[in-house]
């Protein structure tokens, strides 16, 4: 989900050039922006969770795209275009509901990404295990708690040390990760799935028309489906590029719908490709993607490619982790320097890296990773930490949607370089749909899944409730005890005041009026 960088040069109205190219004025084409969004969002590691639902996964993917992916993209685009100052969600939510809620939003973005590391590193550990020559041995090794624990800690702290050297060092590691670890593997598994179907090979999943519509009355079965919302998270990061495209009112929605359709297609066909070769009862959240690749390769006499594919997936994860270790924590540092974090957490090294925030982040990752020793299985840890990530991220998104609606009500006359079509009604409809979709997924995220042994359901729910309360409570406590002395001035990332903190502008008539001359007071 790493954010892509766009060429921001130029400001003319020159039409965008051919697909995938940038015009001579530096503007992005519709195709270029769509590709950037796809790369920022698509990840393959969660596909096995949705393969549990067979053809029904198509319903969930499309539903989540309509009620979440598209609303996130459009609402974030309007907010980013209207309030382009530093801060991202901190700025947007803070403009609507005050600095306390703005700080909570950026805090949740950071803390959920910190928790996310344990889940994505689990996938990296499994990928590395499958580099071995024997699938049975690989599956057993990747399920070993102590192996997964060791790999997670070594990889995470290694990537953290790389980030200590500065942004360029992390960028060098992640430059090709998205292509090697996501785009190419996605194309491979989708191609094999199509070939498998065209050759009329045995399909391990039911493919009757009735299976397209899942049983929505079983709430336990909806838990894994709610994780689809996390698949689509991150699209708000590309909203900063809304002004880099010609005629954004017309072309930005085109790019978003194109990116959304491509993202859904990749996820749907990738999920079905797993279900084609692995029976539902044998699907494992952490292993089945690798097992599917191995099954396809062996079926076509290409077994020697399995270790290479496993290595490519591991490289993709490592690149993503390297990018995300420094990303959200850098945003938190900028907000912290505005007076919301104690000086200890604002400390940077010679390269300008937020070292103490990264140490705290690493300590949290280490503690969470130790859960591998406590819970009954690796995929149980994967599931519970993944759901905690989802629920925390969704709180942030609900704040963002609510901010979009409130700012349209409170400040309707503010110039908006890009605005959701339909005026207030358009914003209320799109943001309202997104808020309700996020709220539904948030509630469902607390239900224990019926497909996975997670230990005591009470402890499962209790852990998620406690995790959400602790994450939100810490942010509010830090905000409450802040001190004026915490604020740093003169930094490159110094935050501009919110619009409601600035003195009201005088009406235009008062600004241009001149005192009368030539008259004397009698």
If you had to describe this structure to a student in words, what would you say it looks like?
- The chain has 522 residues and is mostly helical.
- The chain is 63% helix and 0% strand.
- Helix 5 runs antiparallel to helix 17 and helix 5 (99-129) packs across helix 19 (457-480).
- The model is unreliable at 1-25 (pLDDT under 50).
Tell me, what's the shape?
globular
Number of strands: 0
Fraction of residues in helix:
55-70%
Beta-strand residue percentage: under 5%
Mean of residue pLDDT values: 79
- Largest β-sheet summary: none
Low-confidence stretches: 1-25
Order of helices and strands: HHHHHHHHHHHHHHHHHHHH
Termini separation: 74 Å
Radius of gyration: 24 Å
Question: TL;DR of this structure?
Answer:
By secondary structure, the protein is an all-alpha fold. The protein is built from 20 helices and no strands.
Give me the secondary-structure topology.
Layout: H1 30-41, H2 47-51, H3 56-82, H4 89-97, H5 99-129, H6 135-142, H7 145-163, H8 167-174, H9 177-198, H10 222-226, H11 228-231, H12 248-277, H13 288-299, H14 306-340, H15 355-369, H16 371-374, H17 378-410, H18 423-444, H19 457-480, H20 508-512
Helix pairs in contact: 1-12, 3-12, 3-17, 3-18, 4-5, 4-17, 5-6, 5-7, 5-14, 5-15, 5-17, 5-19, 7-14, 7-15, 8-14, 9-12, 9-14, 12-13, 17-18, 17-19
